[in-house]
Amino acid sequence: MLPSRSAPVPFYEKVKQTISDNIASGVWRPHDRIPSEAELVAQFGFSRMTINRALRELTDEGLLVRLQGVGTFGGGTERAVRTV
Questions:
Q1: DSSP secondary-structure letter at 76?
Q2: Side-chain-facing half-sphere of 29: CA atoms under 13 Å
Q3: Can you tell me the distance from the alpha carbon of 34 to that of 44, in angstroms, rounded to the nearest whole number?
Q4: Residues 48, 40: contact at Cβ < 8 Å?
Q5: Pairwise CA distance, residues 24 & 19, whole Å
Q6: Per-residue exposure over 57-74, b if at least 16 CB sit within 10 Å of its own CB, e if not
Q7: How far apart are the C-alpha atoms of 32 and 30, rounded to whole Å?
Q8: What are the residues facing 71 on neighbouring strands?
Q9: What residues have CB less than 8 Å from 47, skipping those under 6 apart?
Q10: In 3D, which of 53, 68, 62, 65 has the Cα closest to residue 16?
Q11: Pfam family of this protein, just one (predicted)?
């Protein structure tokens, strides 16, 4: 029987996991602004497209809220912004 080889993890999944871990551990709290795409590109060393995909997927999953021209925030921010 051949040893199983797991497929390499895509870079955007690594970014998603790190962001999720930062939120879960309290490094970034709900409603906090997270670093910009440009800052995340510099931090991870991946392309902007890779960072953007990770942020889009986390937004679709409800972990982040992205507001055009404002920034990306931990989940639940949209409601807080509307009530201000």
A1: T
A2: 0
A3: 14
A4: no
A5: 9
A6: ebeeeebbbbeeeeebbb
A7: 5
A8: 67
A9: 41
A10: 53
A11: GntR
Name 50's Cβ contacts closer than 8 Å, sequence gap at least 6.
Answer: 11, 12, 15, 44
Domains in the chain, CATH or no CATH each: 11-83 (1.10.10.10)
Q: Which structure tokens are listed for 2? A: 């051949």
Q: Cα separation of 59 and 42, whole Å?
A: 21
What are the tens digits of pLDDT across the range 37-84? 999 999 999 999 999 999 999 999 999 999 999 999 998 544 433 333
For residue 35, CA distances in Å to 13, 54, 59 come to: 17, 13, 14
Confidence at residue 54, expressed as pLDDT on a 0 to 100 scale: 98
